[in-house]
Amino acid sequence: MERMKRTATCGELNRNHLAEKVTINGWVHRHRDHGNIKFINLRDRYGITQVVIDADATPVLKNTASELKFEYCIAVQGEVRSRPDNMVNPSMQTGEIEVKAEKIQILSTCAALPFMIDERTEAREDLRLQYRYLDLRSFSMQKNIRLRHEVALGVREYLIGRGFMEIETPTLIRSTPEGARDFLVPSRLYSGKFYALPQSPQLYKQLLMVSGFDKYFQIAHCFRDEDARGDRQIEHTQIDLEMSFVSKEDIFEVIEGMLQHIFRKTLNKELKVPFPRLSYDQAMDRYGSDKPDLRFDLEIKELSSLLAQGDFQLFKDVVAAGGVVKALLAPGCSGLSRKEISRLEETAKIFKAKGLAWMKVTEGGLEGGISRFYGDLSEAIITETGAAAGDLLLFVGDTRKTACTSLGAVRNELAAKLKLYDEKDFNFAWIIDFPLFEWSEEEKRWEPTHHMFSMPQEQCLDTLEEDPGRVKGDLYDLVCNGVELASGSIRIHDPELQKRIFNIIGLSLEEAGRRFGFLLEAFKHGPPPHGGIAPGLDRLVMLMAGESTIREVITFPKNTLGLSPMDDCPSSVGREQLEELHLKITKSAP
RNA sequence: GGGGGCGUAGCGAAGAUGGUUAUCGCGCCGGCCUGUCAAGCCGGAGACCGCGGGUUCAAUCCCCGUCGCUCCCGCCA
Q1: What are the residues whose beta carbons fall under 8 Å from the beta carbon of A559, sequence distance 6 or more?
Q2: Which of residues 46 to 75 on A have a Cβ less than 7 angstroms from any strand B atom?
Q3: What radius of gyration, in Å, describes the C-alpha atoms of chain A?
Q4: Which pLDDT value is given to residue A305?
Q5: Is the ipTM of this complex over 0.85?
């Protein structure tokens, strides 16, 4: 029998098609058998159309229809007709019509499903990942993957419209043991040698600038052999871009325009640009994070000198030792129970705080917690924090970093608990003025905060070596709703300056030459000033889709352990394969 | 490497201070049904209660260990 090819999709039929003969192909989404009449909701990626097998159907048709089960792939030929007035389904796109089946062909059958293909699948995630091809049939996954496609399309439309060229760079590259752990690919031809998968196309895009390509972008796969998280996979996708002859202002403007274009097109949402800017120091001091969620206020205040005046010895000691006391005002939270406060304290402790001190604000002043140490200062504390009766004050005294980050975590938890923000808001901001170097206690040396090719800010150029910790870089992150969406910098294009950076991070010229000789050599040949940025596509789509993990916007993700439950990889390989690669396994996985 | 949570039928859940036959919804199988759209009704099958050990007359429940998944700290230039 000839296969019945489709003439229409399951999403497009409406009153304009009445009386037309159509063939639709798709999957049996639902079937309702009333004995002498039967309904099938046929689904394809465009929508769902109701098929009716009427009482007057031929025995052959009725027989075929009775065989249908969930997710059978079928073809239906029939006539589009309007539903009886009281049977119209206003919640369906095609709810005014139905297809009266004349012929049904079963294209393939479907075994019993491991889970229902629902709008919201409730199966455990590892099961969903194991049967990802089924999970991807669900409405929400179809929607997410389509959104991802539209975002990628928007990226291309916008950037190409702005004169960018989409250029590919290699996937098998030289390993550079800086930063994240590399994935290595053993060489067959050269025993004991390895390629690496790129953590990003960083060096190549800089070389493309040297080549004069001026405005480059690529939707690039990046690989990092580190532990996964909800917003992190060992393999992810970046919208990688680089521009010559620019300052960070130019890059901000391109990214703002690009996001505006994408949001307008896909979500019909108007983003307000330019995005606000916060220095790294401000972000840490006020929000306790370098990726603050700015959908809500809840600012952290510093009360070191005030609280060191009271009788609470712990805070006195902290301040005397050069630490700080930070305060977070929890509005209307004086009613929180001990238990609730101690839950917040647990959160603070995860981020290294030794405890979470508190005071309740009442009409009569401060009460409970550590308030008894601050009788005389209560008015000053209330004024300083802007607290009002009914509020709760939370304090951490510690090093600046610990005090800030632990209260930052409490801040996020409080905001979620108090529902201080609209989930659907998008609150973008640029975080700028990052320090260029960080002291590594483990390595006992300065390390680049971002990477070693980032430009120090001009005012620091003369004094780089004096106090590397104070050097600010031409570095910037884009954050949205507490998620780091992009990271970039203006790059160094002066080999002499580059050498000074190597020197500060303790990388000898010989070693630098071995690892990055090609880049240094390139920079001897008229490199243009350049800079770039790389928004994470997965995270962007995750936010836009309202999802809380990037796995929901990736077709075939790994789980948090870096495994793929569907094809069960990584997997072992045969001895011949290993021998060909000159490899020997010294220890097998348990 | 470390901490929290979860693990009961194909799926999602409930369960008891330790006590006969482990409960519910979806799915599956069989039957009925002419307008449903999460169709409905009747009947049925399906669970070594993650795995191993311990305590006990008795463990799905308590204890110890282990495995799997997940969230987080570390890590992620």
Answers
A1: A125, A126, A129, A228, A551, A565
A2: 50, 52, 54-55, 69-70
A3: 30
A4: 87
A5: yes
Cα A95 from Cα A14, distance rounded (Å): 8
Helix then strand count (H, E) for chain A reads: 16, 22
DSSP code per residue over A286-339: HHSSSS--TTS---EEE-HHHHHTSS-HHHHHHHHTT-EEEEEEETT-TT--HH
Q: Which nucleotide is nearest to A56 (CA to C1')?
A: B34
* Nucleotides of strand B within 7 Å of the protein's CB atoms: 1, 10-13, 26-29, 32-40, 67-77
Kindly give the pairing relationship between strand A97-108 and strand A73-82: antiparallel
Q: Which of residues 477-516 of A touch strand B (CB under 7 A)?
A: none
Distance of alpha carbon A165 from alpha carbon A331, whole angstroms: 50
Instruction: Write out the DSSP string of A503-526.
Output: HHTT--HHHHHHHHHHHHHHTTS-
Contact (Cβ atoms closer than 8 angstroms) between residue A118 and residue A140: no
Strands (E), A399-527: 428-432, 437-440, 445-448, 475-480, 483-490
Q: What is the pLDDT of residue A123?
A: 84
Q: CB neighbours of A585 closer than 8 A, spacing ≥ 6?
A: A578
As a whole number of angstroms, the distance between CA A406 and CA A300 comes to 11
Mean of per-residue pLDDT scores for chain A: 93
Exposure string of A269-282, with b = 16+ CB inside 10 Å and e = fewer, is eebeeebeebebbe
* Whole-angstrom distance, CA of residue A326 vs CA of residue A114: 51
Instruction: Tell me if residue A124 falls in helix, strand or coil.
Output: coil
Which residues in chain A show pLDDT less than 50? none
Residue A525 neighbours by CB distance under 10 Å: 8
Encoded tokens for A11: 């999403």
Span A378-396, pLDDT tens digits: 888 898 999 999 999 999 9
Structure tokens at A372: 């008894």
Q: Is the Cβ–Cβ distance between A527 and A235 less than 8 Å?
A: no
Asked if residue A107 lies in contact with residue A3, where contact means CB atoms within 8 angstroms, the answer is yes
Containing A100, the helix (H) or strand (E) segment is strand A97-108
What element of type H or E holds A393? strand A392-398
Residue showing tokens 């301040």: A319
Predicted pLDDT at A177: 75
Hey, what are A95's tokens? 């709810």
**Whole-number distance in Å between A39 CA and B40 C1':** 14
DSSP element (H, E) containing A52: strand A47-53
Q: In the structure, how far is the CA atom of residue A339 from the C1' atom of nucleotide B52, in angstroms?
A: 37
First to last CA, chain A: 53
Is A254 within 8 Å of A486 (Cβ atoms)?
Answer: no
Q: Is the CB of A281 under 7 A from strand B?
A: no
